[in-house]
């Protein structure tokens, strides 16, 4: 938040008020060592707070200090005493805070109290620290809290009055579009997700189409190979066996021959030895066991001989089979190398993945069709709700123009007129309306966009008129008006004061003014003055009692030594 060079209106804190909410209001502001402020403390009223004082006394500096605790960037150049830190603290009364603020405090592990205390410290080095309820936070968190409080209902700021978003929000507030907008945003978010999904599917289809031929070739190659699980590994083992078939048969034949067919077969020798020992088995206690073991060896060798003979007969060298196996392995090794894998099963996984990709090509057209149907349905629903929102906005155009024009005359701009144009644009998060506030300050019938033609003072008063109208539809936050009285006096200033007084019946208002007519409406009147401290000028502030208010306003009317008439006039302003 920055203080404008011209009269400006500043919002700093959303109330969170509804039918049963009390506002979060700034109850106390403390400033130490900032600009020309040595130290001051202000206890604000819940209603209309007026700050007056001579030009240069430091009124707008107070507003600048307030901006720091709301997240504005700071520099060490703001320090009055370059050897001490600057400390700015705001205490916001928090009797019944909005759920979003509670959630922010909880999610950031911040204390939840009856008050929200925001403090900013700036060291001589220029380093800045921020605290919420005495817990250190970063500038992003400080901004986040500020934004939550500001955005609880709507964010209104003089600097934004020329922006289409602000202008649209005014119409929505007057039209009571909050519920419709909430419903619309849910549909619009679904629409955006549906659009993203549809675009993703179409992109996938493009990729599938590009890769289809290549994937089909890869799949066909693997599918035609017809590999079975672990086939290459098993074939390699079998090939080694067949390639050594002759040597294996020779070894098996010799083994069988020695066991069963030689001149002295091993099995027969064992049988003979067993018979010899059997004759003496009863004469020695260990011989029966020995005989039994030889019999077992005899039976085992007979079984080995039979198995050897069977294997010998089963193993046959087959050159044709070996050639086929070599061809099969050659194909398998080629595929392994091509796909950068080492096993048959990995090739089968690649084949299955390729098959899924090819199947996806067949399925994606149906997915796109269903996604398009869903997108069209959501688009129609969004456009239908947007049309209702637009109709409600357009219904507020004429009443807004008429009421603002009447109020502009009231605040000293009799020739100024507002014109609101609502045109159809592309669908977005707020509907499809393009809203533009046009302004004619001199009844020239040449309406132009506000940001191009309205002066600072005109913008400020126009904002005041709009806020007073919007306040009848929704609850605005605490408002700060920094010298909104630029270029007005007399009856116009009085009417500005009346409007602000009305605004302050339901929310906190803080206003810096030079106009006695506005100052006379205050619920709390603060006088900002210069002090001489250690040969340096500093700013001080004090709350005036009734008599002091009358005297201060009389001085605003007639000078440093007010006349009796001025005092009487001031008394009437304060006590009426």
UniProtKB/TrEMBL annotation:
Looking at the UniProt entry, the stretches that span the membrane are 6-24
List, alphabetically, the SUPFAM superfamilies matched.
P-loop containing nucleoside triphosphate hydrolases
Q: Which InterPro entries match?
A: DNA_recomb/repair_RecN, P-loop_NTPase, RecF/RecN/SMC_N
Q: What are the protein's UniProt keywords?
A: ATP-binding, Coiled coil, DNA damage, DNA repair, Membrane, Nucleotide-binding, Transmembrane, Transmembrane helix
Instruction: Give the coiled coil ranges.
Output: 191-245, 354-388
Q: Does the keyword Membrane apply?
A: yes
Gene Ontology BP annotations? DNA recombination; DNA repair; SOS response
Highest taxon above the source species: Bacteria
Does this UniProt record's set of keywords contain Chloroplast? no
Q: Which GO terms describe its cellular component?
A: bacterial nucleoid
Q: Which family does it belong to?
A: Belongs to the RecN family.
Which NCBIfam families does the UniProt record give?
recN (TIGR00634)
What is the role of the protein in this entry?
May be involved in recombinational repair of damaged DNA.
Protein name, please? DNA repair protein RecN
Q: Which organism is it from?
A: Paraflavisolibacter caeni
Q: What is the lineage of its organism?
A: Bacteria, Pseudomonadati, Bacteroidota, Chitinophagia, Chitinophagales
């Amino acid at each position: 938040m920055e203080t404008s060079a011209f009269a400006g209106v500043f919002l700093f804190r959303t109330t969170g008020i509804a039918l049963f909410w009390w506002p979060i209001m700034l109850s106390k502001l403390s400033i130490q060592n900032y600009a020309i402020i040595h130290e001051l403390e202000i206890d604000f009223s819940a209603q209309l707070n007026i700050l007056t004082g001579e030009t240069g006394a430091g009124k707008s500096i107070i507003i600048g200090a307030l901006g720091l605790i709301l997240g504005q960037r700071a520099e060490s150049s703001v320090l009055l005493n370059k050897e001490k830190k600057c400390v700015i603290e705001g205490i916001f009364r928090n009797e019944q805070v909005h759920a979003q603020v509670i959630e922010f405090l909880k999610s950031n592990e911040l204390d939840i109290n009856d008050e929200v205390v925001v403090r900013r410290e700036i060291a001589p080095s220029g380093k800045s620290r921020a605290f919420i309820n005495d817990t250190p936070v970063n500038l992003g968190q400080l901004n986040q809290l500020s934004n939550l409080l500001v955005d609880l209902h709507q964010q209104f700021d003089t600097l934004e009055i020329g922006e289409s978003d602000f202008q649209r929000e005014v119409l929505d507030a007057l039209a009571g579009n909050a519920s419709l907008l909430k419903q619309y945003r849910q549909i619009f978010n679904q629409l955006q997700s549906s659009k993203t999904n549809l675009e993703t599917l179409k992109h996938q289809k493009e990729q599938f189409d590009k890769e289809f031929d290549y994937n089909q070739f890869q799949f066909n190659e693997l599918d035609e190979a017809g590999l079975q699980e672990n086939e290459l590994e098993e074939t390699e083992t079998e090939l080694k066996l067949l390639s050594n078939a002759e040597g294996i048969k020779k070894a098996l034949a010799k083994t069988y021959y020695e066991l069963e067919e030689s001149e002295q077969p091993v099995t027969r020798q064992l049988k003979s030895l067993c018979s010899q020992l059997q004759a003496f088995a009863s004469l020695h206690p260990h011989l029966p066991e020995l005989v039994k073991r030889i019999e077992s060896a005899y039976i085992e060798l007979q079984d080995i001989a039979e198995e050897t003979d069977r294997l010998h007969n089963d193993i046959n060298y087959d050159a044709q089979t070996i050639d086929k196996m070599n061809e099969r392995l050659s194909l398998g090794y080629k595929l392994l190398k091509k796909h950068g894998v080492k096993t048959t099963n990995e090739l089968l996984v690649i084949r299955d993945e390729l098959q899924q990709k090819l199947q996806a090509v067949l399925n994606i057209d149906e997915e796109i069709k269903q996604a398009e149907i869903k997108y069209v349905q959501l688009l129609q629903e969004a456009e239908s709700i947007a049309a209702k929102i637009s109709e409600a906005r357009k219904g507020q155009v004429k009443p807004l123009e008429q009421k603002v024009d009447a109020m502009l005359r009231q605040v000293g701009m009799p020739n100024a007129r507002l014109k609101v144009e609502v045109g159809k644009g592309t669908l977005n998060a707020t509907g499809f309306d393009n809203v533009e506030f046009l302004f004619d300050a001199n009844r020239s019938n040449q309406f132009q966009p506000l940001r191009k033609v309205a002066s600072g003072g005109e913008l400020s008063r126009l904002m005041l008129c709009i806020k007073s109208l919007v306040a009848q539809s929704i609850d605005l936050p605490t408002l700060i008006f920094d010298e909104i009285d630029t270029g007005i006096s007399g009856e116009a200033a009085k009417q500005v004061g009346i409007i602000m007084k009305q605004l302050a019946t339901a929310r906190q208002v803080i206003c810096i003014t030079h106009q006695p007519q506005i100052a006379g409406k205050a619920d709390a009147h603060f006088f900002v003055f210069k002090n001489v401290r250690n040969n340096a000028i500093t700013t001080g502030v004090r709350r005036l009692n009734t008599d002091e208010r009358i005297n201060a306003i009389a001085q605003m009317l007639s000078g440093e030594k007010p006349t009796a008439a001025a005092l009487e006039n001031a008394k009437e302003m304060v006590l009426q």
